[in-house]
Amino acid sequence: MANGEWRITKQRSAVSGQRSFVARRSSLVILLLSFLLSACAFPGSTKPVIKIGMIAPFDGLLRHQGYQRLYGVKLALQEVNLSGGAGGYKIELAALNDFADVDETVLQAQELTMDPDVRGIIGQWDADLFNAAAPIYSAANLPVVN
Fold first, then answer.
1. Which residues of 1-13 are buried (b: 16+ CB within 10 A; e: fewer)?
2. Is 43 exposed, middle or buried (0-12, 13-18, 19+ CB in 10 A)?
3. What angle do CA 85, 89, 91 make, to 5 degrees?
4. Could you tell me the residue ranges of all domains in the chain?
5. Taking Cα atoms as reference points, which of 46, 15, 52, 45 lies closest to residue 30?
6. What is the pLDDT of residues 47-93, one digit of tens each?
7. I need a surface site. Which of 9, 34, 37, 57 has the fewest CB within 10 A?
């Protein structure tokens, strides 16, 4: 194998390992949020769906980070839903784009909190963005896993 080919293989391995880590971490976050949400489910309710909100950059220079999280969360939700959901409820994702911008994060957080079906939030990937949205989530009494 030529030296250049080895570098490409090694880089692909590193990217694959990073994706695997994101998927495992997302699975853990979804599982934890599922337990939290099942405790919030209305007893006797016929409502079959609970939404989890997530805000990430899906456009711009940091879109790769947003899509890594999105794919990891979708994979974890698929696993949870295939195993019966959380407390018998199917979990859906409401993913919104913040363009990695604080002002847009605040607007999107407000939009998520206005949706009565959103019962929990997967926190932002960036501390500044999370700190901008946290008071909005707190005022709406939404659990946040970050």
1. eeeeeeeeeeeee
2. exposed
3. 70
4. 3-145
5. 52
6. 489 999 999 999 999 999 999 999 999 999 999 999 988 888 999 99
7. 9
